[in-house]
Amino acid sequence: MRKAIDAPPASEGDRVAKVIARAGLCSRREAERWIAQGRVAVDGVTLTSPAVTVTPTSVVTVDGDKLPAAGRPRLFRFHKPAGVLTTAHDPQGRPTIYDHLPADLPRVMPVGRLDFNSEGLLLLTNDGALKRHLELPATGWVRRYRARVYGAPDPMALASLAQGISVDGVAYGPIDARLDGAAKEPAKGRNVWLTISLREGKYREVRKVLAHLGVVVNRLIRIAYGPFQLGDLPRGAGEEVPWKALREQLGPIVAATPGAPRETPRGRSRGRRR
Questions:
Q1: Is 125 within 8 Å of 73 (Cβ atoms)?
Q2: Residue 133: half-sphere exposure toward Cβ, Cα within 13 Å
Q3: Closest Cα partner for 58 from 9, 107, 106?
Q4: What was the pLDDT predicted at 5?
Q5: To which H or E segment does residue 80 belong?
Q6: Could you say which of 43, 65, 115, 154 is catalytic?
Q7: 203: which residues sit within 8 A by CB, 6+ positions away?
């Protein structure tokens, strides 16, 4: 295989990392790392830069294997159990989400992550570009959690989180945190439930912020990610988001992707008959 010195000239098409992500192998960022490692070739030329545009006629290979044909973007809701890692492999041999995913799911990647002891809604997709879009803070979707805490959180302190807070040098954006039910003045020495809404979702954000307020989270459940809800999905179960709902929420982000059903002027997919 010939070794490329510079990126081939660009032409009409998509960046190669985006094409790899669309094929569901990894995220765009990971694809760029693969390129830097010399694992990606286009038309027999090993790439040294991600600044390469490929067309539908280009032959893209990763580790010598051709990319699978890109299907339409798909999104799944998964009820992650506690005690499971959001990763593909763990050097310590702990269970991962891939040990629990339903057998009929295609190859999927998690959108963001839930830590080992957290549970609830985890979105999964076969499309790396869709994954990246949903994870971007600029997307602005609210992540909503229920947190069971031990202690007596001060309602005024909870309300102040709406202005944002800095903990150990890390700045967190506005957080809406409210005591559930009628527990406006929780007694010390017992558990209470909070509903937490935030947009950034930094690493262990809920646990760190609430610990800063003097309470310990002993159960954390994500119940919504943007418009997608956990609902009554059983623990360990997965369910695909219908294409209609995906299109309604993401519009051109998914409609313009390869493999997406094409719509007639009346809004029905071509090829369907009543």
A1: yes
A2: 17
A3: 9
A4: 33
A5: strand 75-80
A6: 115
A7: 115
Q: Which residues pair with 30 in a beta bridge?
A: none
State the Cα–Cα distance between residues 40 and 46, nearest whole angstrom: 6
Name the maximum alpha-carbon separation found in the chain: 71
What pLDDT, on a 0 to 100 scale, did the predictor assign at position 201? 81
CA angle 20, 21, 24 (to 5 degrees): 95
- Give counts: helices (H), strands (E), the chain: 7, 18
Give this prediction's pTM: 0.75
Task: Examine the pLDDT at 22 and tell me if it is beyond 70.
Answer: yes
CA geometry: angle at 149 spanning 99 and 86, to 5°?
20
> At residue 269, does pLDDT exceed 50?
no
66 strand-pairing partners? 61
d(CA 24, CA 67): 9
Q: Is 232 marked active-site?
A: no
Cα–Cα distance measured from residue 68 to residue 23, given in angstroms and rounded to the nearest whole number:
6
Beta carbons within 10 angstroms of residue 98's beta carbon: 16
Across 74-94, average pLDDT: 93
Q: What is the mean pLDDT of the chain?
A: 84
Separation of alpha carbons 137 and 142, rounded Å: 10
The residues that bridge with 96 in the sheet, in sequence order, are 85
H-state helical runs in the chain: 16-22, 28-36, 128-135, 155-160, 205-212, 243-250, 252-255
Query: What is the identity of the amino acid at 26?
Result: C
Among residues 110, 104, 115, 113, the alpha carbon closest in space to that of 26 is found at 110
